[in-house]
Amino acid sequence: MYLGLDLGTSGVKAMLIDGDQRVIGSANGALEVSRPHHGWSEQAPADWIRATEEAIGGLKALHPAELAAVRGIGLSGQMHGATLVDADDKVLRPCILWNDTRSHVEAAALDADPRFRALTGNIVFPGFTAPKLAWVARHEPDIFAKVAKVLLPKDFLRLWLTGEHISEMSDAAGTSWLDTGKRAWSAELLAATGLNERQMPALVEGTDPAGTLRSELAGKWGMGGGVIVAGGAGDNAASACGMGTVSEGAAFVSLGTSGVLFAANGSYLPKPESAVHAFCHALPNTWHQMGVILSATDALNWHSHVTSKSAAELTTELGEALRAPTGVTFLPYLSGERTPHNDAAIRGAFIGLGHDTGRVVLTQAVLEGVSFAIRDSFEALRSAGTTISRVTAIGGGSRSRYWLASIATALGVPVDIPADGDFGAAFGAARLGLIAATGADPVAVCSAPETAETIDPVAEFSGAYADAYSRYRALYPAIKPLSAL
User: Which of 100, 111, 235, 376 is catalytic?
Assistant: First the structure.
């Protein structure tokens, strides 16, 4: 048996699979986020341990014999969090999370240093780890002086599980300290934030062994000795391992609260000015690119709230057969936008409304607006050298066939719907645990799920969608000056 632990923002998920990758069971432990000031987002690392104990305790109650047979554990986690510990591994302050924006001034200052984009292949976003340490150095100098190690959230969990200070490439790539092409810490970038390599965890590949479960915990959970803990992955790379998106050209689109277009790359293809993330993948000698939009199903949920109709009611009202664009355009920038604009101040808009514009037309425009935002990411990845010939759709929004037809037509590529199953980050982490414990071939283990159905682009609307996308693209520069007022 193999255990995947996914440390998310809202909870820890534990998933147990067998040697044939059949899911035996899963359980969860809940987490909450503390927001003591505007723009702050924190969690106490002790709560991660509690939630992990709850999740594994839930598995033990249901599957004690199977849990006892665990030979490998894989870790996945929310990225970018700054977990600071002293020389005795004591936590110095609450972890500053990925969605904390307090360090926007420090991020802009670091991004203005050309070395950061040149070595990391990415813009320095406020959510990344390096600017958070620059903020701590400026505002909490006593704490900064005591920092012995900076750990990402899942790697703090590893410290508790194994006693080791180890990270891996996919998560480390989101810190703004990794030389992403060389897959190594950059002493130069660390020095720019007053740190050194001794304060960083050792680096391994996500498929490598990265510690052994402490005997105390193995005994508590009824496991034997020698349980290997894999390097693991950041959450998106772990999800990609679960989806089988690990080989050149493989891609998925995730329609969750935010939207992600993720493509695996066989080489390092940075283009930071496009706001595309270029990170290491969890597998050796593999990288990936991500375009991120900040409001995907969140845009439909906003429309649902305004109209007092559920998201399901709205999409049912629209039907399944794709319609031609109406001339009403929606910009889904409800909380700013990441790819390709990197604009936290921009806000959404409806354009082209008339007396005859009803709820169904607005719903159609919302779905099309998200589809065109994903097209923006598609074009940004293409400009960075990635060719995507088809995508697999995951996330809550993928339940709408209309939306998938809209995305397929906007991108001009087929959209595959996977067979039922849980192929998320916890499953990907369990796969990495299996690989690390057995030495199995990573690509063979990280296979793609069966495709239940494929949604093809609707050819009769390709021209109308191209025209609608041109209108969509023209609107961002038009409204940007107004968003600053």
Answer: 235
